[in-house]
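Continuing from the previous page...

OK, I double-checked the sequence for Alpha/beta hydrolase against my notes and this is the correct one:
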Amino acid sequence: MGTWGRAAKWLQTPGKSDMKLGEISKDYRILIVPGIMNTCVADTPAYDKGRKALTDKYGLTTELLSVPNDSSEANAKAIASFIQEKMKDDKRKFIVVGYSKGTPDLQVALAQEAGVKENVAAFISTAGASGGSPVADSLPMQLDAYLSKVKQGKCQGNLAEGFKSLKKDVRQRFLSSYPHPMVPTYSLAAVTTAESVPKTAAQTFKMLSAWDKYNDSQLLKLDQIIPESKYLGVVNSDHLNVALSMGSTFPRAALLEATVRFVIDDLSKSGVIKPAETTKTEPKKKSWADGFGN
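Thanks. Re-ran it with the corrected sequence; updated structure tokens here:
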């Protein structure tokens, strides 16, 4: 997975660096739902190395559901069907991770589809489009020419419908209808700078900076934070490279492991699951997650 050096450089507020990491509880499974156009870059799946590390090193069951470029409502049904099918053979609940449009797809699934929230223990949003994006609002002016080129590729679904689900007014209406998270929810935002944004994303970064300089070139920082969620902090990355290997050196595997560890630890402290057993005479130690992202 490469040598990343100190991960602190990728966090706006670094956490502790002297915590000893143990095993990760296998009481849950991990399901990642990626963003729009993920089928167009199927050879670059979201958190690919991170998922493999969680499985190979810690024995966790990890899944990637590659949803098509359809509306969040259509993808929510696909998510529900996937989860219901998986629950037939394994009763462990999922910790779901939504990246980019995967976040609103999961929000709709949790809010509207039967059997989803009952089988999800927690929801992690990384650079998630919970509040929509001004980029999606600007697309109709240039979408037809763009789609005519993309449709010739290997993309699945209806990109026009997918982008409509990312419009700010659409996402804000959803949040007004469902203002409270359905399960324990955690938000991790991404922010880049004019100096570090990739050239291919410089134009959208500049456009979004007219609203707020704190953006990842696709989403404003505030639109990445789900209302009433636990805020995990900000990573220094553009939107694509936070989850996809697109040329930028970024510790995606470490990020995924850290967020999964934090959430499982937080669930155990909340009484959702029992912490992993330790020596009976050993006093309870302060959790490694304390102080992360504060």
